[in-house]
Amino acid sequence: MKATENKNKKTLKKVWRLSEKVLIFASAFAKKAGAAEATLVL
């Protein structure tokens, strides 16, 4: 029981780290896209 519990925790950590990276990337991309749109408008 403990072994599978530990495995699940490790998997959750991996998923969390991955989603964290995606969020950081997405926000950076959104900022870049927003900046590009702003320069196009100007």
UniProtKB/TrEMBL annotation:
It comes from the Bacteria. This is Uncharacterized protein. The lineage of its organism: Bacteria, Pseudomonadati, Bacteroidota, Bacteroidia, Bacteroidales.
